[in-house]
Design brief:
Shape: globular
Distance between the termini: 23 Å
Organism: Pseudonocardia parietis
CATH superfamily of the largest domain: endopeptidase domain like (from Nostoc punctiforme)
CATH topology of the largest domain: endopeptidase fold (from Nostoc punctiforme)
InterPro entries: NLP_P60_dom, Papain-like_cys_pep_sf, PG_Endopeptidase_C40
GO molecular function: hydrolase activity
Protein name: Cell wall-associated NlpC family hydrolase
Order of helices and strands: HHEEHHHHHHHHHEEEEEEH
Structural class: alpha+beta
Strand order of the largest sheet: 3-8-4-5-6-7
Family: Belongs to the peptidase C40 family.
Radius of gyration: 21 Å
Helix content: 25-40%
Strand content: 5-15%
Number of domains: 2
Length: 379
Protein backbone atom coordinates (compact mmCIF):
# COMPACT_ATOMS: atom_id res chain seq x y z
CA UNK A 1 0.00 0.00 0.00
CA UNK A 2 2.83 2.45 0.89
CA UNK A 3 4.58 1.61 -2.38
CA UNK A 4 1.35 2.32 -4.33
CA UNK A 5 0.94 5.68 -2.58
CA UNK A 6 4.52 6.55 -3.39
CA UNK A 7 3.99 5.70 -7.03
CA UNK A 8 0.87 7.88 -7.19
CA UNK A 9 2.67 10.77 -5.47
CA UNK A 10 5.58 10.63 -7.91
CA UNK A 11 3.18 10.43 -10.87
CA UNK A 12 1.19 13.40 -9.61
CA UNK A 13 4.38 15.39 -9.10
CA UNK A 14 5.45 14.52 -12.62
CA UNK A 15 2.14 15.83 -13.97
CA UNK A 16 2.61 19.07 -12.04
CA UNK A 17 6.18 19.39 -13.33
CA UNK A 18 5.07 18.88 -16.93
CA UNK A 19 2.28 21.38 -16.45
CA UNK A 20 4.53 24.08 -14.96
CA UNK A 21 7.06 23.70 -17.73
CA UNK A 22 4.30 24.14 -20.32
CA UNK A 23 2.96 27.18 -18.50
CA UNK A 24 6.40 28.79 -18.40
CA UNK A 25 6.86 28.22 -22.10
CA UNK A 26 3.71 30.06 -23.04
CA UNK A 27 4.78 33.19 -21.19
CA UNK A 28 3.44 35.36 -18.45
CA UNK A 29 1.40 37.57 -20.77
CA UNK A 30 -1.37 34.96 -21.02
CA UNK A 31 -2.13 35.35 -17.32
CA UNK A 32 -1.82 39.11 -17.05
CA UNK A 33 -3.98 39.95 -20.06
CA UNK A 34 -7.15 38.54 -18.51
CA UNK A 35 -9.50 40.81 -20.38
CA UNK A 36 -9.80 42.23 -23.84
CA UNK A 37 -11.30 45.44 -22.54
CA UNK A 38 -15.00 46.15 -21.86
CA UNK A 39 -17.30 43.38 -22.94
CA UNK A 40 -19.74 44.31 -25.64
CA UNK A 41 -22.64 42.14 -24.54
CA UNK A 42 -24.57 39.68 -26.65
CA UNK A 43 -23.49 36.23 -27.75
CA UNK A 44 -20.11 37.47 -28.93
CA UNK A 45 -19.36 39.48 -25.79
CA UNK A 46 -20.42 38.59 -22.26
CA UNK A 47 -23.02 36.21 -23.63
CA UNK A 48 -23.96 32.96 -21.98
CA UNK A 49 -27.44 31.47 -21.85
CA UNK A 50 -29.20 34.82 -21.58
CA UNK A 51 -27.32 36.72 -24.25
CA UNK A 52 -25.21 38.80 -21.90
CA UNK A 53 -25.65 42.37 -20.68
CA UNK A 54 -28.58 44.09 -22.33
CA UNK A 55 -31.57 46.34 -21.82
CA UNK A 56 -34.87 44.44 -21.64
CA UNK A 57 -38.14 46.23 -21.01
CA UNK A 58 -36.30 49.44 -20.21
CA UNK A 59 -34.15 47.84 -17.49
CA UNK A 60 -30.43 47.12 -17.81
CA UNK A 61 -29.44 43.58 -16.84
CA UNK A 62 -25.94 42.11 -16.65
CA UNK A 63 -24.83 38.72 -17.96
CA UNK A 64 -25.40 36.89 -14.68
CA UNK A 65 -28.92 38.27 -14.34
CA UNK A 66 -29.95 37.36 -17.89
CA UNK A 67 -28.43 33.89 -17.49
CA UNK A 68 -30.41 33.28 -14.31
CA UNK A 69 -33.60 34.57 -15.96
CA UNK A 70 -33.07 32.22 -18.91
CA UNK A 71 -32.45 29.34 -16.50
CA UNK A 72 -35.73 30.03 -14.70
CA UNK A 73 -37.69 30.18 -17.96
CA UNK A 74 -35.99 26.99 -19.08
CA UNK A 75 -37.06 25.13 -15.95
CA UNK A 76 -40.64 26.33 -16.33
CA UNK A 77 -40.76 25.24 -19.98
CA UNK A 78 -39.09 21.93 -19.19
CA UNK A 79 -41.75 21.24 -16.57
CA UNK A 80 -44.49 22.21 -19.05
CA UNK A 81 -45.84 24.91 -16.75
CA UNK A 82 -47.61 28.05 -18.03
CA UNK A 83 -45.72 31.24 -18.85
CA UNK A 84 -47.32 32.79 -15.75
CA UNK A 85 -45.13 30.58 -13.54
CA UNK A 86 -41.99 32.09 -15.05
CA UNK A 87 -43.25 35.64 -14.47
CA UNK A 88 -44.00 34.88 -10.82
CA UNK A 89 -40.66 33.15 -10.26
CA UNK A 90 -38.58 35.90 -11.89
CA UNK A 91 -40.46 38.70 -10.13
CA UNK A 92 -39.69 36.91 -6.88
CA UNK A 93 -35.98 36.72 -7.61
CA UNK A 94 -35.87 40.39 -8.66
CA UNK A 95 -37.21 41.31 -5.23
CA UNK A 96 -35.18 38.82 -3.23
CA UNK A 97 -31.76 38.95 -4.89
CA UNK A 98 -31.87 41.11 -8.02
CA UNK A 99 -31.43 37.86 -9.97
CA UNK A 100 -28.01 37.19 -8.41
CA UNK A 101 -27.02 33.93 -6.73
CA UNK A 102 -25.94 35.33 -3.35
CA UNK A 103 -24.59 33.52 -0.32
CA UNK A 104 -26.10 35.81 2.30
CA UNK A 105 -29.36 37.39 3.36
CA UNK A 106 -31.71 37.82 6.30
CA UNK A 107 -30.71 35.25 8.92
CA UNK A 108 -29.86 32.06 6.95
CA UNK A 109 -31.42 33.14 3.63
CA UNK A 110 -29.46 32.14 0.53
CA UNK A 111 -29.53 32.19 -3.24
CA UNK A 112 -31.77 33.66 -5.90
CA UNK A 113 -34.97 33.23 -3.91
CA UNK A 114 -33.45 33.86 -0.46
CA UNK A 115 -34.65 30.46 0.67
CA UNK A 116 -33.84 29.42 4.25
CA UNK A 117 -32.47 25.95 5.10
CA UNK A 118 -33.87 26.28 8.61
CA UNK A 119 -37.38 26.73 7.21
CA UNK A 120 -37.43 23.55 5.15
CA UNK A 121 -36.30 24.97 1.79
CA UNK A 122 -33.54 22.40 1.46
CA UNK A 123 -29.82 22.20 2.05
CA UNK A 124 -27.51 25.01 0.88
CA UNK A 125 -26.36 22.73 -1.95
CA UNK A 126 -29.90 22.85 -3.35
CA UNK A 127 -30.65 26.50 -2.57
CA UNK A 128 -27.40 27.77 -4.13
CA UNK A 129 -28.00 25.92 -7.40
CA UNK A 130 -30.23 28.26 -9.48
CA UNK A 131 -31.98 25.42 -11.31
CA UNK A 132 -32.61 23.38 -8.16
CA UNK A 133 -33.79 26.44 -6.24
CA UNK A 134 -36.21 27.25 -9.05
CA UNK A 135 -37.61 23.72 -8.92
CA UNK A 136 -38.21 24.07 -5.18
CA UNK A 137 -39.99 27.38 -5.71
CA UNK A 138 -42.12 25.94 -8.51
CA UNK A 139 -43.00 22.88 -6.43
CA UNK A 140 -44.52 25.14 -3.79
CA UNK A 141 -46.11 27.48 -6.31
CA UNK A 142 -48.11 24.80 -8.12
CA UNK A 143 -49.44 23.51 -4.80
CA UNK A 144 -51.40 26.77 -4.38
CA UNK A 145 -55.01 26.42 -5.59
CA UNK A 146 -55.66 28.94 -8.37
CA UNK A 147 -52.11 30.27 -8.38
CA UNK A 148 -52.14 31.07 -12.11
CA UNK A 149 -55.07 33.51 -11.79
CA UNK A 150 -54.09 35.23 -8.54
CA UNK A 151 -53.60 39.03 -8.64
CA UNK A 152 -50.03 40.30 -9.23
CA UNK A 153 -47.73 39.54 -6.32
CA UNK A 154 -50.21 37.37 -4.43
CA UNK A 155 -48.87 33.99 -5.53
CA UNK A 156 -45.27 35.05 -4.90
CA UNK A 157 -46.19 36.23 -1.41
CA UNK A 158 -48.09 33.02 -0.70
CA UNK A 159 -44.94 31.03 -1.48
CA UNK A 160 -42.36 33.34 0.11
CA UNK A 161 -44.36 34.57 3.13
CA UNK A 162 -42.37 37.78 3.15
CA UNK A 163 -42.56 40.49 5.81
CA UNK A 164 -42.92 42.90 2.87
CA UNK A 165 -45.79 41.45 0.81
CA UNK A 166 -46.27 44.51 -1.40
CA UNK A 167 -42.85 44.30 -3.07
CA UNK A 168 -43.62 41.50 -5.53
CA UNK A 169 -46.43 42.97 -7.63
CA UNK A 170 -44.43 45.99 -8.94
CA UNK A 171 -41.75 43.65 -10.27
CA UNK A 172 -44.09 41.61 -12.44
CA UNK A 173 -43.76 44.08 -15.32
CA UNK A 174 -39.93 43.79 -15.64
CA UNK A 175 -40.25 40.06 -15.00
CA UNK A 176 -42.76 39.72 -17.84
CA UNK A 177 -40.35 41.55 -20.16
CA UNK A 178 -37.59 39.08 -19.29
CA UNK A 179 -39.91 36.15 -19.85
CA UNK A 180 -40.95 37.60 -23.21
CA UNK A 181 -37.27 37.74 -24.17
CA UNK A 182 -36.68 34.04 -23.52
CA UNK A 183 -40.04 32.28 -23.83
CA UNK A 184 -40.47 30.13 -26.92
CA UNK A 185 -43.68 28.36 -27.87
CA UNK A 186 -47.24 28.47 -26.51
CA UNK A 187 -48.06 30.10 -23.19
CA UNK A 188 -49.27 26.72 -21.92
CA UNK A 189 -46.83 24.11 -23.25
CA UNK A 190 -47.82 20.49 -23.72
CA UNK A 191 -45.92 18.13 -21.41
CA UNK A 192 -43.01 16.43 -23.19
CA UNK A 193 -42.79 12.64 -22.94
CA UNK A 194 -40.14 11.26 -20.63
CA UNK A 195 -37.59 8.93 -22.16
CA UNK A 196 -38.40 5.28 -21.36
CA UNK A 197 -36.32 3.81 -18.59
CA UNK A 198 -34.99 7.04 -17.14
CA UNK A 199 -35.32 10.80 -16.69
CA UNK A 200 -35.37 13.15 -19.65
CA UNK A 201 -32.15 15.15 -19.19
CA UNK A 202 -32.52 17.17 -22.40
CA UNK A 203 -33.43 20.71 -21.45
CA UNK A 204 -35.74 23.00 -23.41
CA UNK A 205 -32.67 24.83 -24.67
CA UNK A 206 -34.55 26.71 -27.39
CA UNK A 207 -35.30 29.37 -24.77
CA UNK A 208 -31.62 30.30 -24.50
CA UNK A 209 -30.59 33.50 -26.25
CA UNK A 210 -27.14 32.26 -27.33
CA UNK A 211 -25.98 28.96 -28.83
CA UNK A 212 -23.84 26.51 -26.88
CA UNK A 213 -20.60 28.28 -25.95
CA UNK A 214 -19.30 25.90 -23.31
CA UNK A 215 -17.88 22.95 -25.25
CA UNK A 216 -14.17 22.52 -25.77
CA UNK A 217 -14.60 22.12 -29.52
CA UNK A 218 -11.70 19.70 -29.93
CA UNK A 219 -11.30 15.91 -29.65
CA UNK A 220 -10.19 14.60 -26.28
CA UNK A 221 -6.42 14.20 -26.10
CA UNK A 222 -5.07 10.66 -25.56
CA UNK A 223 -4.33 9.92 -21.89
CA UNK A 224 -3.19 7.06 -19.71
CA UNK A 225 -6.07 7.61 -17.27
CA UNK A 226 -9.71 6.57 -17.60
CA UNK A 227 -11.60 9.85 -18.19
CA UNK A 228 -14.75 8.55 -16.48
CA UNK A 229 -13.21 6.93 -13.38
CA UNK A 230 -11.48 8.15 -10.26
CA UNK A 231 -7.78 7.21 -10.38
CA UNK A 232 -6.75 4.53 -7.85
CA UNK A 233 -5.37 6.00 -4.66
CA UNK A 234 -6.83 9.48 -5.21
CA UNK A 235 -6.99 11.45 -1.96
CA UNK A 236 -9.53 14.29 -1.62
CA UNK A 237 -8.37 17.59 -0.10
CA UNK A 238 -8.40 18.01 3.68
CA UNK A 239 -10.21 21.35 3.76
CA UNK A 240 -13.96 20.69 4.26
CA UNK A 241 -15.21 23.16 1.63
CA UNK A 242 -12.70 22.09 -0.98
CA UNK A 243 -13.37 18.43 -0.21
CA UNK A 244 -17.15 18.90 -0.62
CA UNK A 245 -16.77 20.66 -3.99
CA UNK A 246 -14.19 18.18 -5.31
CA UNK A 247 -16.13 15.14 -4.11
CA UNK A 248 -19.29 16.39 -5.80
CA UNK A 249 -17.50 17.01 -9.07
CA UNK A 250 -15.91 13.58 -9.05
CA UNK A 251 -19.30 11.95 -8.39
CA UNK A 252 -20.58 13.35 -11.70
CA UNK A 253 -18.03 11.55 -13.90
CA UNK A 254 -19.70 9.94 -16.90
CA UNK A 255 -22.86 12.06 -16.81
CA UNK A 256 -24.05 13.75 -20.02
CA UNK A 257 -23.15 17.23 -21.21
CA UNK A 258 -26.32 19.26 -21.87
CA UNK A 259 -26.12 22.96 -22.57
CA UNK A 260 -27.57 24.97 -19.69
CA UNK A 261 -27.86 22.00 -17.33
CA UNK A 262 -26.88 22.38 -13.68
CA UNK A 263 -27.58 18.82 -12.56
CA UNK A 264 -28.40 16.45 -11.17
CA UNK A 265 -28.72 14.33 -14.32
CA UNK A 266 -26.60 16.41 -16.72
CA UNK A 267 -24.34 19.45 -16.78
CA UNK A 268 -22.66 21.98 -18.99
CA UNK A 269 -19.22 23.22 -18.01
CA UNK A 270 -20.21 26.17 -15.81
CA UNK A 271 -23.27 24.34 -14.52
CA UNK A 272 -20.97 21.68 -13.09
CA UNK A 273 -18.76 24.20 -11.29
CA UNK A 274 -21.78 26.07 -9.90
CA UNK A 275 -23.29 22.82 -8.61
CA UNK A 276 -19.97 21.58 -7.19
CA UNK A 277 -19.42 24.66 -5.07
CA UNK A 278 -23.11 24.79 -4.12
CA UNK A 279 -22.51 21.36 -2.57
CA UNK A 280 -19.96 23.07 -0.33
CA UNK A 281 -22.40 25.86 0.56
CA UNK A 282 -20.50 28.43 -1.50
CA UNK A 283 -22.35 30.47 -4.16
CA UNK A 284 -20.72 30.65 -7.58
CA UNK A 285 -22.41 32.70 -10.32
CA UNK A 286 -23.75 30.93 -13.37
CA UNK A 287 -21.85 31.15 -16.65
CA UNK A 288 -18.19 31.38 -17.55
CA UNK A 289 -18.45 35.11 -18.25
CA UNK A 290 -19.28 35.70 -14.58
CA UNK A 291 -17.27 32.86 -13.09
CA UNK A 292 -13.99 34.12 -14.55
CA UNK A 293 -14.28 37.10 -12.18
CA UNK A 294 -15.53 35.27 -9.09
CA UNK A 295 -13.36 34.45 -6.07
CA UNK A 296 -9.76 35.67 -6.20
CA UNK A 297 -7.09 35.38 -8.90
CA UNK A 298 -4.74 32.41 -8.81
CA UNK A 299 -2.28 30.86 -11.23
CA UNK A 300 -1.36 27.36 -12.39
CA UNK A 301 1.72 27.53 -10.15
CA UNK A 302 -0.42 28.18 -7.05
CA UNK A 303 -3.53 26.22 -7.97
CA UNK A 304 -5.54 24.64 -5.14
CA UNK A 305 -8.25 21.94 -5.13
CA UNK A 306 -11.58 23.46 -6.08
CA UNK A 307 -10.07 26.28 -8.13
CA UNK A 308 -11.80 27.07 -11.42
CA UNK A 309 -9.67 26.77 -14.56
CA UNK A 310 -10.64 28.47 -17.82
CA UNK A 311 -9.70 27.93 -21.45
CA UNK A 312 -11.15 29.62 -24.57
CA UNK A 313 -13.16 26.60 -25.71
CA UNK A 314 -14.86 26.44 -29.08
CA UNK A 315 -16.17 30.01 -29.26
CA UNK A 316 -14.15 31.91 -26.66
CA UNK A 317 -10.96 33.96 -26.54
CA UNK A 318 -8.10 34.49 -24.06
CA UNK A 319 -9.92 37.46 -22.55
CA UNK A 320 -13.38 35.90 -22.71
CA UNK A 321 -13.02 32.13 -22.18
CA UNK A 322 -16.06 29.91 -22.68
CA UNK A 323 -14.99 26.66 -21.04
CA UNK A 324 -14.29 25.96 -17.36
CA UNK A 325 -13.29 22.98 -15.25
CA UNK A 326 -12.68 22.40 -11.55
CA UNK A 327 -9.22 21.38 -10.35
CA UNK A 328 -9.56 18.40 -8.01
CA UNK A 329 -5.91 18.02 -6.98
CA UNK A 330 -3.07 15.70 -7.93
CA UNK A 331 -2.71 17.32 -11.34
CA UNK A 332 -6.28 16.56 -12.47
CA UNK A 333 -9.26 18.61 -13.65
CA UNK A 334 -12.93 17.56 -13.90
CA UNK A 335 -15.09 19.22 -16.55
CA UNK A 336 -18.21 18.78 -18.64
CA UNK A 337 -16.19 18.47 -21.83
CA UNK A 338 -18.67 18.19 -24.71
CA UNK A 339 -21.90 16.53 -25.84
CA UNK A 340 -19.90 13.63 -27.26
CA UNK A 341 -17.81 13.08 -24.12
CA UNK A 342 -19.83 14.22 -21.09
CA UNK A 343 -18.26 14.86 -17.68
CA UNK A 344 -14.68 13.62 -17.54
CA UNK A 345 -11.45 13.82 -15.58
CA UNK A 346 -8.21 14.59 -17.38
CA UNK A 347 -4.66 15.74 -16.64
CA UNK A 348 -4.45 19.48 -16.12
CA UNK A 349 -1.34 19.39 -18.27
CA UNK A 350 -3.65 18.78 -21.27
CA UNK A 351 -4.85 22.37 -20.78
CA UNK A 352 -1.49 23.98 -20.00
CA UNK A 353 -1.00 25.92 -23.22
CA UNK A 354 -4.62 27.15 -23.27
CA UNK A 355 -5.31 28.37 -19.72
CA UNK A 356 -6.47 31.97 -19.53
CA UNK A 357 -7.71 32.31 -15.93
CA UNK A 358 -7.51 30.46 -12.63
CA UNK A 359 -9.88 31.55 -9.85
CA UNK A 360 -9.61 30.52 -6.21
CA UNK A 361 -13.04 30.08 -4.61
CA UNK A 362 -12.62 28.95 -0.99
CA UNK A 363 -10.31 27.13 1.41
CA UNK A 364 -6.52 27.37 1.62
CA UNK A 365 -4.83 28.92 -1.38
CA UNK A 366 -2.37 26.79 -3.30
CA UNK A 367 1.37 27.04 -2.83
CA UNK A 368 4.13 26.71 -5.44
CA UNK A 369 5.48 23.16 -5.68
CA UNK A 370 8.76 22.80 -3.73
CA UNK A 371 11.82 22.61 -5.95
CA UNK A 372 12.88 19.38 -4.25
CA UNK A 373 9.58 17.67 -5.11
CA UNK A 374 9.83 18.78 -8.71
CA UNK A 375 13.41 17.60 -8.95
CA UNK A 376 12.44 14.19 -7.56
CA UNK A 377 9.76 13.87 -10.24
CA UNK A 378 12.11 14.72 -13.08
CA UNK A 379 13.32 11.65 -15.05
Amino acid sequence: MDQQKGTIAVAAAAVVMTFLVAVTSMGIAMFTAVTDGPLAGGCGGDGGLGGGSQSIGGTDWNAEQTENAATIVNRVVQRSLPRRAAVIAISTTIVESQLVNVGHGDRDSLGLYQQRPSQGWGAPAQILNPAAATDTFLDRLVELPGWATMPPGQAAQAVQRSAFPDRYAPQEEPAAALVERFWVGPDNPVPAPTAPGGPNVQLASSVFACPDQGGVGAPLAPSNIDPTALPPGFTPPADPAQRAAVTYALAQLGKPYVYGAKGPDAFDCSGLTTAAWAAAGVPVPAGTVSQKNTGTPASPATIAPGDLVFIPGSLGSPGNPRHVGIYVGQGLVVNAYSEQTGVIIQPLSDWADQITHVRHIAGPAGQPAPDAALAAATP
